[in-house]
Every structure is written in C-alpha cells, then in structure tokens.
Amino acid sequence: MARPYPFNESDRLELDPTYQEVLRDEPVSRVMLPYGGEAWLAVRHADVRTVLSDPRFSRAAVVGRDMPRVRPEVEENVNSTMNMDPPDHTRPRKLLAGAFTTRRVEALRPRTAELTAQLLAGMRAAGTGADLVEHVSVPLPLMIICELLGVPVADRPIFRSASDAIMSMSAITPQERLAANADLESYMAGMVAQRRITPTDDLLGAFVRAQGEGDRLSDGELVDLGIAVLIAGHETTMSQIGNMTYTLLTRPGRWAALRGDHEVVVRGVEELLRYTPILASGGFPRIATEDVELSGVTVSAGETVVVSLNAANRDPELFDDADTLLLDRAANRHIGFGYGAHHCPGAALARMELQEVLGGLLREFPDLRLAVAPEDVQWRTGTRVRGPRALPLAWGPENGGRQDTAPTDSTVASFHLYDLRPGCLGSACPGRPIGRDAYTRRAE
Q1: SS3 content of the chain, % helix, strand, coil (to 5)
Q2: Percent of the chain whose pLDDT exceeds 70
Q3: Does CATH place domain 80-280+317-415 in 1.10.630.10?
Q4: Cross-referenced SUPFAM superfamilies, in alphabetical order (predicted)?
Q5: Which helix (H) or strand (E) holds 187?
Q6: Quick one: pLDDT band at residue 158, thresholds 50, 70, 90?
Q7: Strand (E) positions, 27-164?
C-alpha cells in the first residue's frame, strides 16, 4: 500500500521517522502524492544519485503530463532549465556554470563580507536582541544576487515577494502563483529588452550578449534563465542562514564549537548542509524512459520517481552517525545541492555566503542565543523550502534580550510581503505591503 507523501508537515527541521524506516527497510517504495497518483520514492544516497544523473530518468518528459506531483498545476514551462534534459539543458547550463565558477565567487567574497558586516552592525544597533530573518537572512542573499543580475535597488523587495510566491506549494492558490510568475516573466523580459538597447556589465547583460553572439537561447529561455538565477541564487541561502543558526543554537555546545579559524567554519557549513533538511518534500520528479533497477526494485518505463535529498543525506550506509550533527565530519559527500546535470550551479555562491554569515555571527555575537523558546519560533509553511519566518535572537546578559512570548505580528511581517497583483511588479508599482496573511495562508 502506498504511503501518503510528503510524510509530515514540514514546518520545522525534524525529519519524519518514516524516513528512517524506509532507509532501513524499503529504500524504493510506493507513495501517493497530493496530485496525480502514485510514484516511487528513492531515499538511499546511491539511488538518489542515480535518479539525478542517469539519462534514463527525464525531467523533460514531465512537461504537459498529468503525473504524480506535489502542486496542483501540470508543469507546462518548456523554457525552464529544470524541465530540460541534455543536450537542450547544456546550452543554458553552460552559461550558468561560467557565471558561478569558484574563482568568480571568491572574487565576490570581499563584497559579501562588507555587506555582512553592515547588516550585523544594523542588527547590533537594535539593542540586545533582533530578528535574524529581517536583518540578515533575507537582505544579504537578495542584495548579492540582485547586484549580480543588475536588479534596481527599488525593485528588490518586490522580487523577494515574487520568489516567495513562486516557491509556494499550498501557501497560496495556483492562480496567485501563476499570476506572480507571469508578472515576474514580464518584468524580466523588460530588463532583457533594456540591455539590448543599453548593454550592461551585469550577469543578465552577459546572458543577453551571449544570445547575440550565437548561443542559440530563445527569448523565453533567456527570461527563464534570469528568473532561475534570481530565485535559486537567494532562496535556499536565505532559508539556510536561519535554519543553520537555529540548529546550532538549539544543540548544546554547537555554537561555541564553530568558533575558530575559517576552516572550522567551512567544515561546519558542509556538515550543516548535510544535516539540516531544506526541502519540504521530494525534489522535482522524474519519469523513467525505460526500465531501471534501483535497490532491487524495477522502475518501469513511464513511471514517476521522486527523491529525498534530506533522507539521502542521512543514509547510514554512507555516513557514520548519520543522524548526529558532527561539525568536524571529514569527507562529507552530502548532496545538499543536488547531483548530476541539475546540480545547483550557484552552490559555490551559497557556500561562500553561508561561510561569511556564520563566521560574522560567531565573531560579533559569541554569546548568541534564541530570544524565545525553540517551540515558539514561527516557521514558513506551504512552501518548497523549510525556514523560519522570524528568528528572534538575543545577546549580552541573559535577562537583557530575552522575549517571554513569540514574535509579534510586526516582527513576523518583516518578511517583505508585497503586492503581487497582475501588473504590479516593478518600479512602477512600489511594493506596497499588503499584510502578512496574503502569501502565507493555507489554500482552502
């Protein structure tokens, strides 16, 4: 009998115990997704890597198909790099890979450190306590990726809200999600058109030049590439800044254990990427184009497979003490950024930003702690990724910044929710706040 999937409500950072059960007894099992019926779920590290890298598992095959999925909409976007297989996927992927090489990312480290220092100074100026999400988690990754793309400062909060809508699963209605996506496509198309008239040195300008020099990207692919960079370039990092800080502060001795030189932080970030579950459910499903065997189970041609990166990163066959956070873990072969052709091209950027933020927090706030009880931290719900809506922190004397209650509405509302009505995206519509419930409520 197929288990309902996702297994649990992913509003915190604990994996459902069912994952341990299937890792041990049924690594490839039948699950019932919210829409489209049954699929196979692969959880072991080796099987997940196979599904993500073997060309017999296709992302392109999902387009236009009423298949098992976690959202009600049938995937229709042929321009999305996530819906392409090689060789079509190779063209935009080549552009992305060139933009986020290790050398180029390291060149961004001084600017990231500068922005981090400014944001942490602003957080300290709040007194003996502040919300990490408002002061650091949201603004830093957004500033970095928008500077790279060339997004005007005035439009950045609107991009944040659009990304939030597009990444939702059940937090908003499908119609709201499609409207937000259409608005973002229209805005990005306008940015592309501007760069054809007036070339720029930013990343989007480079994409436009590459198209003009014969890179064979269609206009639709170019627009979608810009959107993919925008969302992927900040969404996961934004969530993981809060997730990692929460994880460290709720485990005795872990915050202090990371204080040291840069390499201690680097290794700690890798273990946190392995240990901290970021996805709220299985990753993007794939369809088998022919029969494939996984852990002794035959996945037939035409069947859908979903994978759990969260579970694969807790596979005891690969990781000793897989369910324990070991900040000095060596040879960490986690797949927190995916694997294969769709491995996150911005992984190096995300790593660098996480290293700078955690390193900065450790230096500036060695006595950092939660300002509320762990159970009072409020979490995003109904989205593809897990993360706190607000993370109230305190420093200094124990009684100086502790809050006795959960964050107020005004604190949580700092998550930059803006008007996403059709036609209201961009500098012509200056991001009017419309209230905290507009894009965080459950779809009825």
Answers
A1: 45, 10, 45
A2: 88
A3: yes
A4: Cytochrome P450
A5: helix 174-197
A6: confident
A7: 28-32, 38-42, 57-58, 129-131
